[in-house]
Design brief:
By secondary structure, the chain is α/β, with parallel strands linked by helices. It has 2 domains: about 15-275, Aspartate Aminotransferase, domain 2, CATH 3.40.640.10; about 275-385, Aspartate Aminotransferase, domain 1, CATH 3.90.1150.10. The chain has 12 helices and 13 strands. It has helices at about 15-30, 40-55, 70-85, 100-110, 130-140, 165-170, 190-195, 255-275, 275-295, 320-330, 340-350, 365-385, and strands at about 1-5, 65-70, 90-95, 115-120, 145-150, 175-180, 200-205, 215-220, 300, 310-315, 330-335, 335, 355-360. The strands form 3 sheets. It has a 7-stranded mixed beta sheet, sandwiched between helices. Strands 9-10-13-12 form a 4-stranded antiparallel beta sheet, covered by helices on one side. A two-stranded parallel sheet has the order 1-11. It starts with a strand and ends with a helix. The relative contact order is 0.17.
């Protein structure tokens, strides 16, 4: 199989990740922070190593402000529900994943908050400027607006937002900035301090090359959230309330130590290779497939003006799931449909069956793109013969 579904989860992982997960399970997988014995201490030390690696990668001076979660969605729910209060107003972009839209929409339906959607581009084929984006945000600010919550990069195409400029705009206007880094962490530059990010939510299992079951919530110094879950964490066990310090305030119950151990090695892999090298490699694959598909009759590429790791397309006269099944039969893993992003598909104007997403990772090679194109041409030819 040729795997072009890295926007969902990266595969394969670096060998060092597999090795560390196994080493953890076999050698030091005690319950971190829950005992005075050697295995508990060893697990806790590995978890703190991961906090330090992540803090260094994302420009955060306080490793203790890194909270481990099981995925980005969990981190976003903690951020959104822990930050927003009764009567608050929040702004989100028109390209958001359901992990942003759904928790915010629920709070709005319950009458607790209100929200508006700001545009990221008008489908004109041009890349909007940072001034365009910030103007759209500014036009929707109300006296009760508390935060902007937005994805750094889309999960359905290669569109990305100018986070540093949005961060500066938010802080000038007294707003929090919560960033969904699901598609950018490990690929695009992400520096919380430099970009003015108050809360960053990232997966461990995508661009950081960890395994599934790992994610992180990163809090800038001074940012405090209400807790979403409460329980034991190995500290102040005689108190009924959760502690007021991070990370223990937010980490209830046993942490997924093997997943965090693997994530630690995944982050080290990303640092060794370099995010710039990873990004350059994936963009080269994107550009080649974009060139091939934009010159193919019967294929439409969405938002081709943006360059990144993810390409979205549709085939005339074929539902997206039919294209996906045909590609799967020829040895290619892609994702079809609406990719948990109703807002994004509405913005891009995809067909009623959705579209096909090909997303690249560091271990993909140019020859795989050529093979993908030949397979798609074969599918098109077969479909055209069937219509005659």
């Amino acid at each position: 199989m040729i795997y072009f579904d890295h926007a969902a989860t990266t595969f394969p992982k670096p060998p060092s990740v597999y090795a560390e997960v196994e080493r953890c399970i076999r050698s030091y997988c005690g319950n971190p922070g829950r005992g005075s014995h050697t295995l508990s201490r060893a697990a806790a030390e590995k978890i703190y190593e991961c906090r330090e690696e992540a803090a260094s990668l994302f420009g955060l001076d306080a490793p203790e402000n890194i909270v481990f979660t099981v995925n980005t969605t969990a981190a976003l729910n903690m951020a959104i529900k822990g930050l927003l209060q009764q009567g608050d107003h929040v702004l989100i972009s028109d390209m958001e994943h359901n992990s942003v839209l759904r928790p915010i929409d629920r709070l709005a339906r319950e009458g607790r908050i209100s929200y508006d959607i700001f545009p990221t581009h008008g489908g004109s084929g041009r890349i909007p400027t940072a001034e365009d984006i910030c103007r759209g945000i500014g036009q929707r600010i109300r006296p009760e607006t508390r935060a902007v919550v937005c994805a750094h990069a889309s999960n359905i195409c290669s569109a990305s937002l100018p986070i540093a400029e949005i961060g500066a705009f938010c802080h000038t206007n007294g707003l929090y900035l919560v960033v969904d880094g699901a598609q950018s962490a490990g690929i695009l530059p992400l520096d919380m301090s430099r970009m003015g990010i108050d809360v960053l939510c990232v997966p461990g299992h995508k661009g950081l090359y960890g395994i599934q079951g790992s994610g992180m919530l990163l809090l800038s110094p001074g940012t405090v959230l209400d807790t979403l879950t409460e329980g034991g964490n190995g500290v102040r066990s005689l108190d009924a309330a959760m502690p007021d310090f991070s990370p223990e305030r937010y980490e209830s119950g046993t942490l997924p130590t093997p997943a965090i151990a693997g994530l630690c090695e995944g982050i080290r892999f990303v640092k060794r290779v370099g995010t710039e090298a990873i990004m350059t490699h994936e963009q080269a694959l994107f550009r080649r497939l974009r060139e091939l598909l934009t010159n193919t009759q019967g294929v439409k590429v969405y938002a081709p003006q943006f360059v990144g790791s993810t390409l979205l397309f549709s085939v005339d006269g074929m539902p997206s799931d039919a294209v996906g099944r045909a590609l799967d039969a020829r040895g290619f893993c892609v994702r079809c449909g609406f990719h948990c992003s109703a807002l994004g598909h509405r913005t891009l104007g995809t067909p009623e069956s959705g579209a096909v997403r090909a997303s690249f990772g560091y271990f993909n090679r140019p020859a795989e793109v050529e093979r993908f194109y030949r397979a798609l041409k074969e599918i098109l030819s077969t479909a055209q013969k069937a219509d005659r």
